[in-house]
Amino acid sequence: MSELSSAKEINARATAFLERREFESWNEADERELSDWLAQSKAHCAAFWRLEAAWERTHRLAALKQERLRPANGSRAPRHARQWPLRTAAAAVVIAAIGASFYAFQPQDTVYRTALGGHETVTLADGSEIELNTNTVLSTRVTAASRKATLIRGEAYFRIRHDANRPFVVTANGKTITDLGTAFTVRNDAGRVRVALFEGSARVDAGGKPVILTPGDKLLAAAGRTVVSHELPQTLAADLGWRRGIVIFKRTTLADVAAEFNRYNQTKLVIADPQTAELTVGGTFPANNVELFGRMASEILGLRVTRTPNRIVISR
Amino acid sequence: MVDTSDFSRPPGGPNASDLPMTASGMKAWFVREVLPLEPILMHFLRQNWRNRADLEDLRQEVYARVLEAAEREFPAKPKPFVLVTARNLLINRVLRERIVPFDAKADLDSLEVASEVPGPDRAAIARDELRKLSAALDRLPPRAREAVVLRRIEGLSRREIAERMGVSENTVADHIRVAMNALANVLFGEPSELTRRS
After folding, report:
1. Any CB–CB contact under 8 A between B90 and chain A?
2. CATH for B122-197?
3. Can you tell me the distance from the alpha carbon of A141 to that of A252, in angstroms, rounded to the nearest whole number?
4. Is A63 on the interface with B (CB under 8 A)?
5. Could you report the per-residue pLDDT of B24-69, keeping only the tens digit for each?
6. B156·A10 Cβ contact <8 A
């Protein structure tokens, strides 16, 4: 009995985590505490994922009720919502409608998350638009005095409404990108921060001398080093394929192809051996259709492709 | 869409390594493939285990074992896998604890795990889900339901909910925790209209 009698305790702990994450500021230390606890036992995972999945489903309910509750004139928020900062209320409606989850870090912070394979666009109160790519967490804080966003992980495309008195500052892994009238992407991938600039200019502070980026510039900051390269517009455009739900490869190794597809899909593309991993391919694919790529590898490239429920393994 | 014109083999270059199944992949699999089986699992456990007080423990233990197995390899057929895991667990407990509930033992011996009984298809589950969700909400204790509505539909903070309900923040947290558990039990644990019909 003894090893089983802890189910109630495990469940209580899982519920406490979920309630705290729902209501309290939730920072990286909290996230670590939760993931450490989950790593301790599969029973912990089962309890937490089960509760989380049920609770996530209540988002659907919110979307339904939003429709039903919307006032006839379509623009006025219900009375209780008006007590909220309007910006936050609007964000909540957007998030409820698109079914992503959000958590309030600080009263004035709004946190947006996308799941694996997700893609969402949010419009901030200042008119700036942010598009979130797969598996991304971004928090924003827009006040009368400043505009800030933190890319906790993942990738986002920023189209910033320029305001010289209130520059928009994006932080990723301690590096800051300050808009000077701009459209750019930032990607924070396990501490490697990449910035690509499409319009206007932006200043990047990655330690050392600030770098001013102009259209076509790509910056990579990793392991204490910052490298800036300049790309042709059409090369840079390939980096924005995700905004249309596609991935674009040009003489890309299968290793990199796999890494790119795996950003978007539960089904993981695995390249079985180093020789195969070095082959390069070109082409354009729906980011969420790794099966199509698997078929192509088999039928057109003549590679051996084996399929398991969660993997596509490519070998020679 | 597919252009393979520049397929070539460069000298040298980075190697791909085998990717371990990520925690998020495991979670997605669990939510997608295992949780929907909970009504069947609970039905099986209720049929074969007398003591209702043990059901929660048993469910948790089955899930833990299933996840441990999935870490090595994802079972190709989750349903028979979950039910066989449950059966083995019950047999072990009967043997280990020497409580021999006769009828349960008899059931276990003659048990055929009905693996090929078709469940409702996923689309039907999705259609069923909203109805279930709103039914689940209706069945929450009234104060817990009020707290959920204030959070999920009106988006209030814990402090704001406490003020609105005239209770402490701790009490709001209690209501929410009760609701989280009750919602999971109703959404996953109970047979839906669809499974009852089939």
Report:
1. no
2. 1.10.10.10
3. 38
4. no
5. 678 888 988 899 899 889 988 888 887 788 888 899 999 999 998 8
6. no
